[in-house]
Amino acid sequence: MARILLGWELGNGIGYARRLAAIADRLMEAGHEPVLALREPKALPDPTHPVLQAPLVVGRLRPGTRGFVPAGFTDLIAVNGFGSHDHLLELVAGWQAVLDEARPDLVIAEYAPVLVMAAWRRIATVLIGTPYLVPPAEGPWFPERPGIRPYANQRALLEVMRRAQAARGGPLPDRLTQPFSEAVRVVYGVPELDPWTRERREQLNGLWEPAAPAGPPASPRLFAYLTPQAPAFAAAAEGLARAGVPGEAFIPGCPDRLAAVLGAGGVELLREPPALAEAVGRASLVFHHGGMDTAQTALALGRPQLILPRYLDQRLTGDALAALGVGILHMRASATAETVAQALRRLAGDATMAARASLRATLIRRRGIGDALGSSVAAARHALSDVRPLTANVPISGG
Predict the structure, then answer these.
(1) What is the pLDDT of residue 390?
(2) pLDDT by residue (tens digit) across 169-227?
């Protein structure tokens, strides 16, 4: 029996915690002892495994920075610890304290770059995540999006990493990508939504969990997954109520008064997180912020999507869906209750987009939709045994 630490460091929402908990459940069934270290422990209201508080990362921008548009993963980690030696050393020390308490034989990390570095060459590590957050790492530097001026200098970040590692007596990386390339990597997603698909040489592992094919309902019906923390939430919620398209909505922390407004508009508020594939399968269209799990599940089930992004990676997902002709990207700057309602009505009545979404789902299924949860568990077993496991997962080419 092995003791396994599953850590989440950056990012918002409940998805990170739920994915790590799902891996922990399967590893416990196999006789292992999982411990979770979560950025937001309350993301799991009824945990079945021990939960530790992950180090809290407070992002830092350089003084005078106006706006922040990351060119890639490097910019994300630069503002979240890797931008300065003292900040990084403080966060590494925080993770080291967690590692000392948990004493794991294996680390599984999702969007936890400092944890990956803290464990590098000391504890076997499995790195999981979406294509945007687990970019290609074969070369010395991470890829960057063309046309965007990088916020961070990658050579400077490498020097920050080396100084922090030297201060704690750890191994010194020769490449910025080294700790991330030497982990066992499970990138979940589909090539259609991978912003680094041209650079990527490794295989993607498809959907987090297989989703059974489901035909759309006979009449328009939506599923919405929104958060009150989104800047355009008020417009999104009112537009959802005005649209006149019945369905279901999951809105964590939704005020009771809004539930009544949605109900009057024919939208049932779900109080507990639904089984995603089932909720999407009951709908003919999906409205959300662009999270990868929801986007790829809707894509694989052939459901058109309306995306109202909060972050850049979600905008990239919306751009990709729009380019495929299976979604609408609605930027928050122009979002009003009426524009959101109009977009939902348009999506509900667009037979051409529905047909394109159905065709895309057929193509994805012919290629194989994968099982990233199963792949993550298999990767953990492989890392523990150093023997390549057999798995029924069908990898999805990222090229």
Answers:
(1) 33
(2) 999 999 999 999 999 999 999 999 999 999 999 999 999 988 888 899 999 999 999 99
Cα(136)–Cα(131) distance, integer angstroms: 8
In the sheet that holds 285-288, the strands lie side by side as 267-270, 247-250, 222-225, 285-288, 305-307, 327-329
Residue 5, helix vs strand vs coil: strand
Query: At 2, which amino acid appears?
Result: A
Q: What is the pTM of this model?
A: 0.90
The two beta strands, 3-8 and 106-110, are: parallel
What does the block give as tokens for 44? 């799991």
- Distances in Å between the Cα of 87 and the Cα atoms of 77, 156, 316 are 12, 14, 29
Give the pLDDT confidence of 70-107 residue by residue, as tens digits.
999 999 999 999 999 999 999 999 999 999 999 999 99
Name the one residue in this structure whose structure tokens are 């309350």: 42
Give the H/E segment covering residue 219: none
CA distance 100 to 102: 6
Give start and end residues of each alpha helix (H) in the chain.
Answer: 15-29, 73-77, 85-102, 113-119, 154-168, 178-181, 233-242, 256-264, 276-281, 292-300, 312-324, 337-349, 351-367, 372-385
H helix or E strand, kind and range, residue 38: strand 33-38
Cβ neighbours, 10 Å, residue 282: 16
Distance CA 100, CA 114 (A): 15
| Confidence at residue 386, expressed as pLDDT on a 0 to 100 scale | 65
Residue with tokens 């953990």: 380
Whole-angstrom distance, CA of residue 115 vs CA of residue 175: 17
Comparing CA positions, the residue from 282, 297, 269 lying closest to residue 357 is 297
